[in-house]
Design a protein that fits this description.
about 180 residues; globular; mainly beta; Jelly Rolls; 5-stranded antiparallel β-sheet; about 10% helix
């Protein structure tokens, strides 16, 4: 085998032996990783939490070509979350969170994005919620300015709804948590 192939083989073996990495980001960009925020190359760290199946689908997206499709499978609430404990790197101070959502069923649902600020050990310091208006077939943007408390080192995100019945569908796109000023 050629030397170059051995180097690639060694690199592949080394990377698969490592624990999952937490990717940290510039404090002025989206704190979520690009894949979880835009959904263009995959679902990112989004996973079904309760009462749903979640998948990345190519459709009439608000931005780009793909969305996170959340299909309700059980009554009495639903949720998806970022499966990357304890979350993405963050810092104290002013932030803006936003997301685009639409419902594709006849029922008007509300999507709530919960942003959870955590310390370096993963302990919750504060949680703040953005609630969309009732969703229809049209995209709607929900945004809110938030303040991460002193001691914030990580941020995690979940999107939930208190209502829904099997076969209801919610589509999410362009999920953002962004620092407004560097400290």
């Amino acid at each position: 085998m050629k030397r170059g192939r051995w180097n690639l083989l060694w690199l592949a073996a080394a990377l698969t032996a490592c624990e999952p990495a937490i990717i940290d980001h510039s404090p002025t960009s989206n704190l979520l990783d690009a894949e979880s925020a835009s959904l263009e190359t995959g679902p990112g760290a989004w996973t079904a939490w309760y009462g749903v199946t979640a998948s990345r689908v190519s459709t009439d997206a608000r931005e780009g070509e793909a969305v996170l499709r959340v299909e309700v499978t059980e009554p009495y609430g639903w949720g998806v979350h970022l499966d990357n404990w304890p979350g993405f790197a963050a810092s104290p101070g002013a932030h803006r969170a936003s997301f685009w959502a639409r419902g594709t069923s006849e029922r008007s649902l509300v999507a709530e994005m919960r942003v959870i600020w955590r310390d370096s050990g993963g302990r919750e310091l504060r949680a703040e919620t953005l609630s969309s208006p009732a969703l229809s077939g049209q995209w709607v943007r929900t945004a809110r300015e938030l303040t991460a408390p002193e001691g914030t080192q990580r941020v995690s995100v979940e999107v939930t709804g208190a209502e829904g019945v099997p076969a209801n569908v919610i589509e999410l796109d362009a999920l953002v948590v962004q620092a407004l000023g560097a400290r």
